[in-house]
Amino acid sequence: MAFDRFTRGEKLSSLKLTVVQYGILVMMLALGAGLWRLQVLGADNFRVLAEQNRIRKVPILAPRGKLFDRENRLIVDNYPSVSCFLVREQGHNVDADLPLIARGLGLDLDQLRATLRRYRSAPGYQPIPIKQEVTPDEQAFIAAHASELPELETIDQERRLYPRDGYAAHLIGYVGEVSEEMLNDPRYAAYEPGDVVGKAGVEESYDQLLRGQDGSRDVIVDSRGREVGYLRTQHAIPGQDLRLTIDNDLQRAAELALGDRQGAIVAMDPRNGEILAMVSRPSFDPNDFAVRIDRTAWNKLITDPEHPLLNKAIQAQLAPGSTFKVLMSVAGLEEGIAQNLRVECNGGANFYGHYYHCDEKHGLVDIHNAIPMSCDTFYYTLADKLGIDRISRYATEFGYGQKTGIDLPGEQAGLMPSAQWVMKNYHRKWYAGETISVGIGQGAIEATPLQLARIIGGIASDGHLVRPHTVFPDQLPADFRHALLDTYPGSGKVDIPLDPDAWMTITDGMAEVTQPGLYHTAGSAHLEGIDLAGKTGTAQVMSHEALDRTSKGRITYPNVWFVGVTPRRNPELVVTVLWQNGEFSYYPARIGAQVVAAYVEKQRRLAHNLPAVKAATAPAAPPKPAEVGAIWSQPETGNGQPVARIRAGHFFVNPPAPGGVHATAASAHAPRTASALPGRLALALPPRQIRTP
Amino acid sequence: MNPARRFLSFRDFDWALLAMVLVLCALSIFEIYSATLHTRYTGFHTKQVFWIVGGLFGMFLFAKIDYHKLIDFAPWIYGVFLFLLGIVLIPGIGHKALGARRWIKLGPVLFQPSEWVKLVLILAVARYFANLGGRSLTGRDIFKAFVLVGVPMLLVLKQPDLGTTLTYAPILMAGLFLGGISIRQSIILFTAGLVLIAGAWTSGKVLKPYQKARLTSFINPDNDPRGSGYQIRQSLIAVGSGGIWGKGAEKGTQTQGDFLPIPHADFIFAAFSEEHGFVGAILVLLLYFSILMRLIQNAQTAADLPGALLIMGIVAVLTFQIAVNVGMVIGFMPVTGIPLPLMSYGGSSVLFTFLALGVAMNVRMRRFVN
Predict the structure, then answer these.
(1) B69, B176, B253, B322: best to mutate for the A interface, most A CBs within 10 A
(2) Is residue B370 a part of any domain in this protein?
(3) Is A672 part of a structural domain of the chain?
(4) Neighbour-count burial of A405, counting CB atoms closer than 10 A to its CB (0-12 exposed, 13-18 middle, 19+ buried)
(5) Quick check: ipTM above 0.90?
(6) Is residue A264, in this structure, part of any structural domain at all?
(7) What percent of chain A has pLDDT over 90?
C-alpha cells in the first residue's frame, strides 16, 4: 500500500485542531452578532423598510363634479379613458417588442424609442406612459397580446368631456395639471404635483367643490410592482355636481347669433344676477386641455392676436360708446338738468374751441328723443353742464370702473376717469374738453360687456343692481359661499332708487331705440310683439381726426355695442352684445334681438302661448343645414344602470323656416348610437350674414 | 476474508452527524417550499428531496469505499478533472449559460466539473500533505501545494466563476496550516497574498468590472443599486424585519413578495431568517457549529494522517461556504454566488456535500481498522 509508513500513532496536532475549533467558534459568534444586530436591534427599522417595500399607495382619483345647466341638462361630463403604460420587467427584453407595440398602438417607432430613452435613468418599477386615450381597438390589441407583451399595462382614468366647438368654453373654463407657480400659491396648499386643477372659468373658481377628494388604496406589490393584494381602501369622494345658471337654449342661441364675429355676448337675469348665456369669440376647445395639450397647440392659443383664451365678456375693456348715454341720462335727470334741456343739433357743436361731431343733423333734441336717436350733440351739452365730477360720481356709483364681483376668475374692472384719476396717474388737471368725450362714452372710459349688462339692466330695474353669478348659490356650502365673495370682490348687489319720472323717461327712450323711426339707431332690430328696449353704442377705435388721417385705403371699423332689456321696465333679461370692428351699431342690436327672441319664445313655449315671432332679419333664401356638434346624456333606462350614459354626435340642424322654429334634423354622424335627436337640439340657427340695409 | 473488511461496520457510522444533517435538510425543504410557493419555482422542494435521497445513496456508497483507495487514485482523478476544466473553456464543448462557460453537456444532463473539483482537491491536497508526513515544510513544498490548487483555480476563474474559485482556497489553507507551515512562512505568504490581491485588483485583468462591483457593493450598496447592491439591501431588510421570532412560515413579505433574490438558493438563509427570526437563525447556526465540531472530532480520532487531512479539508470547505453565504446574507460579505451547504437548493451542492460527508464517514468507520 502507498501509505505503509503511516502508523496509527501518526495524527494531526491536537493543538492545531483546537485552534481550528476556536476559529470556527469565533466565526459563528460573529455571524450570531450580525444576526443580533439586524434582527434584534434593527428589527423595527427594517420592518418599516419591508412595509415600504411591499405597500404602495395607489391614488383613487375622485371623479370631478359634472356641470349642468339651469334645467339640469348636462354640459360637462367625465368619460372613462384608458392610458397605456409600459412596465419594464427584469429579464424581459422590451426593445425587441417595440415594433409590435408601435404597430398595435399606432405609435411612431422612433418616437416610442425616444420616450423610453427619456425614462432610461428612472427606477425600474416606474411605469412609462406611452399612450393616452387608448381606443377600444388598441385595448383589444393589448388584451390579445397579454402573454407576448406582459410589459403593457392599462390604467383607467376619468377625463373631462367638454362640449364641442368651444360651446360656453370661456364660462366653463378648462382643467390641466397643477403648475409649479400654483403650488407655491397658498390658495393651492392642498394640491400636489400631478393633480388636475381647474384653470379658468367655473372650473377654476369652483375647483374646490368640483374636484372632490381623492381616495387611496394600499396595494401590496411584489418586487416587480405587480399587485398581489389589497390592504385598505379609502374611497374617493366624488366632486360636487354644480347646476349653472346657464340656459342651454339661450346659450346656444347666443353662440349661433354671434357666429364667428369677434366679440362677446352676455345674457343675464337682472332680477337676480343669474348669467343665462355667456359667449366670447374667438373661442377654443377645452377638450384640447383635457388630455395634455401639445406645445404647438398651446403656443398657437397664446400667441393668437385675437386671444382666444380671453373671456371678452368679463375681460375685454373697451370704450362703451353711446351705451354710456343711459348712465348720462340717469345723471342728468337725477340732477334735474336733462328734463329741461333742449339742444339744436346741426351735426355737431363747439365746446372749448373744438368742434365735436354728431352722426346726423338731428334738429331740436330733448331727453325723450336723444336716447333713441343717440344724439351726440345733446349729450355733449349735458356732459358739459354736469361736469366730470358729477358724471364720474354717478358712473362709479352704478359700477363703472369696478368689478361686478362675478364668480369667474380674471374679471377686469374697466375704467371710469375722473379729475382725481388724471391727477393721480398723469399729474395734470382734467381738461374740460375731456368731459365732452366722456359724455358719449369715449375717451379714457372703459367697460366690460358684463359691466354694461349689470349697469343698464340695473337702471332698467329702477336702480336695483345685482351681483352676476354663474352657479346657483343655494348648492354651495356656507363657508365656500363666503370665501367666494372674498375671492371675487366687486360692487355686487346695490340699490340706488331712481326718480320714477327719470326711470320712465329712460326706459321709454330705450324702448324707442328698437322701434322704427327717423334716426332711431336700431329700428331694424325691432321684434314684433316683444318689448325690447336697449341702447346701441359705437366706439371709435381711434379718434375721428386720427381716423381721417390714417384710414386712407384701410378700413378700421369701430367697435359696436348693444345692450338690450326685455321688457323695458323691471326686465327679465338683459343682453350685452359686443362686436369688435363691427362697423354699424344696429348689427349688434340685431344679434341681441335674436337672443332676446329666443328667450321670449322659450318662455312663451313653456307657458304654451306661442305666437309666431317674426325674426328681426328673415333670410332671403333658406340657408344650408348647419352641422352642430353636441353631447348629451342618455337618461337611465331603468334596467338598473345607475349611471347616465354620455353620448356624443354631430347633427345637421335646419335653420328655422319663417314663422316658426322647427328642426328637421337627422342624425348624420354619431360615433356611438344616436337613434333619436334630442329635442333640446332643435334650435333655431339664424343666418350668419347680416344684410346691410 | 480481508481482516480490514471484517471490522468495518455501520455500527461505527456517525449516526449523530447524519441526524443533524437530516434536520438541516428538513429545514431546507420546508423553507424551499415556502420561498417558492408563489413563484415559477414552485415544486422545487420535491426536487430537493430527490437530490437529498440521491446524496444519501452517494454518501453510503462513499462510506463503503476505503478512502486510502481514493487517495491512491487521487493523481489520476486530478488529471482527468484538470483536463475537463481545460476543455470546458473551449466554446464547442463547454456549454455557456448566464454569461459563463461552466458546463459540459452530456446528453440531457449538464455536468459542472468545477463542483467536483472541490472534492478532487480535498483528496489531492490530503494526499500531498500526508506524503510530506508532517515534517516542517520547505519553500519548495509550499510552492508545489500552490501549483496543485492554483492551476484549477485559474481555470475556473477563466470561466468565469469567482465563487467556486474562492471555495478552493480554504482547502489549500487548511492543508498548509495542518500540514506544518511555520509562523514565519505564513507571515511571508500572507504578505505576498495581500500584495498579489492588491495587484490583481488594480490591474483590471483578473477581475471583470461587474465582479469588482459585486465584491464592493456589500460595503456600500449604493455602488450597484440595481444589481448586487439591491440584492444585499433586500436581504438585510428580509433578515432584519424577521425580528426575534420571525414572521412565520410562508408569511415573509420580502420572501413571498419576490423582493429577495433567489430565496430558495443563495439567499435561503435570508428567507429562513425572515420567516423564523433570530431564534430560528441561531438554531441553524448551532446545527452547523455542531456538525463542524463533530467532523473535527472525527478528524481527531482518525486512524491516520490522510484521513484526518481529508476530514479537515471538508471542514475547511464547509466552514468557508457557511461563513461566506451567511456573511453575504447579513451584509458582512460580498455577493459571490456561493450556496449554503445542506440548505440552498441545487443538485451539485447537495451531491458534493453528501459525498464529502460520505468520505468523512468512511474515515470515522475505519478509525479502529488496520
Answers:
(1) B253
(2) no
(3) yes
(4) buried
(5) yes
(6) yes
(7) 34
Distance CA A536, CA A443 (A): 17
Question: Is A639 within a domain?
Answer: yes
B323-to-A39, A95, B20, B164 alpha-carbon distances in Å = 18, 41, 19, 14
Q: How far is A650 from chain B (nearest CA, A)?
A: 51
User: Confidence band (pLDDT; 50, 70, 90) for A123?
Assistant: low
How far is the C-alpha of A212 from the C-alpha of A528, rounded, in Å? 49
Domain of residue A107: give its range: 61-242
User: Would you say A535 and A372 are in contact if contact means Cβ atoms under 8 Å apart?
Assistant: no
> Cα B220–B223–B226 angle (5° rounding)?
115
Total domains present in chain B: 1
Record the cell numbers describing residue B237, joined without a space. 431588510
Q: In this predicted model, what pLDDT tens digit does every residue of B187-222 receive, in sequence order?
A: 998 998 899 888 888 877 777 777 777 777 777 766
- Tell me: the pLDDT tens digits for A468-483? 999 999 999 988 888 8
Give the three-class secondary structure for B256: helix
pLDDT for residue A672 is more than 50: no
On whether any CB of chain A is under 8 Å from the CB of B238, the answer is yes
Instruction: Measure B203 CA to nearest chain A CA, in Å.
Output: 30
If asked whether residues A334 and A275 sit together in one domain, one would say yes
Query: What predicted TM-score, i.e. pTM, was given to this entire model?
Result: 0.61
Q: Is residue A50 part of a domain?
A: yes
- The answer on A65 and A23 residing in a single domain is no
pLDDT at A550: 54
Same domain, A567 and A651: no
CB contact under 8 A, A21 and B293: yes
Q: What pLDDT sits at residue A610?
A: 62
- Point out the least confidently predicted range of A110-124, A180-194, A521-535, A652-666: A652-666
Both A232 and A266 in one domain: the answer is: no
Rounded Cα gap, residues A277 and A266, in angstroms: 6
For residues B281 and A227, give the distance between their C-alpha atoms in angstroms, rounded to a whole number. 30
Residues A28 and A154 in one domain: no
Out of A190, A208, A242, a domain closes at A242
pLDDT, one tens digit per residue, over B95-146 is: 877 677 788 887 777 788 888 899 999 999 999 998 887 678 888 899 999 9
> Within an 8 Å CB–CB cutoff, is residue A6 touching chain B?
yes
Chain A residues with beta carbon closer than 8 angstroms to that of B277: 39
Is the domain of A212 the same as that of A358? no
Per the CB < 8 A criterion, the answer to whether A258 and A279 are in contact is: yes
**B182 in A contact zone (CB under 8 Å):** no
Residue of A nearest to B128 (CA): A3
Given this model, what pLDDT does residue A54 score? Answer: 75
Residue A29 distance to chain B (closest CA, Å): 9
Per CB-CB distance under 8 Å, the chain B contacts of A28 are 285, 288-289
Provide the CATH number for the domain around residue A207.
3.90.1310.10
- The answer to whether residue B304 is domain-embedded is yes
**pLDDT grade for B269, boundaries at 50, 70 and 90:** very high
User: What is the DSSP pairing of strand A242-243 with strand A67-68?
Assistant: parallel
* pLDDT confidence of residue B79: 95
Q: Which residues of B264-300 are buried (b: 16+ CB within 10 A; e: fewer)?
A: bbbbbbbbbbbbbbbebbbebbebbbebbebbbbbbb
Tell me whether residue B119 is in a domain.
yes
Segment A313-340, tens digit of pLDDT: 999 899 999 999 999 999 999 999 988 8
How far apart are the C-alpha atoms of A276 and A69, rounded to whole Å? 9
For chain A, how many structural domains are there in total? 4
- Which of A12, A53, A54 is the mutation pick for testing B, counting most B CBs within 10 A? A12
pLDDT band at A629 (very low <50, low <70, confident <90, very high): low
Residue A28 and residue A91 share a domain: no
In terms of residue numbers, what domain contains B325? 3-365
Asked if A410 and A208 count as a contact pair (C-beta separation under 8 A), the reply is no
A178 and A192, same domain (yes or no): yes
